[in-house]
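User: Okay, second chain of the day. Same drill as before: sequence in, structure tokens out.
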Amino acid sequence: MKLIISDIKERLSYLKKLEVQAEKSLKENSLEGRIKINSSSKYPQVYLITKPNDTGGKYLGKKDSKIISRYCQRDYNRHVLKKVQKLINGCEKFLNNLPSELSSASLENFLSEKNPVRRKFLPDPVLSDDEFVKEWLSVKYKGKSFSENNGELTTDRGERVRSKSEILIANKLASLGIPYRYEFPHKLRDRHGFKITVYPDFTLLNKETRKEIILEHFGRMDDPEYVSHTLEKLSLYGRNGIFPGNRFLFTTETSRHSFDMRLFEKQLKAAGVI
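Assistant: Same drill. Structure tokens below.
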């Protein structure tokens, strides 16, 4: 629910900017009368009508294109303003009438705090956000094994990873309080429909929606063979309904362009995990 409220507030802010722009444009573009466009012929014919009882109007040709443009812009802004104000009213009405429980906490947290003594006797109680995260993180799994050539690279949580960039990613996730699993196995289907196991670099948990997000770091994008393998992996994810921006994030780097932490944070924000 918090994610929905955040999206509506962001939408409301955008709508109010459109409202200001439309009002300003209408004030600056004050015109009398209206234009009538006859589109029944091969080439649209435009007429300027300034008198109430005038049904014909003055014909506007190519030399009058600037005048036509001003009238079209004015009418467009009128439609925009009318629609935007209606949407603003709807957003504000929704936000102003939210129950306090929904605006301040998730439904799951609200239910978990309701009658805590009685809750202990429930066979299958609704888990709070913290309880859900704890249970999600407690799942035991076997990731990919490390070869003797892999160096000893560890995160602040003591996890062994395969690159310095993965250390940066893991530590950032931990510092932001984003639950994650490193190289957790996922069952997908290949191009022939057979089940295969893949081990994404990170699997994140969106605490608000309780959905998992795959995060891959593609660290050698100037290596043709590596790029080819990356494209195969992207195709595999796509065939399984996992697309960038929808349950899937990825970061990149090359020998000349290092991992961009600020861009990574923007991706996390856009995905709604922070």
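The chain has a mean pLDDT of 89.

User: Thanks, on to the next one.
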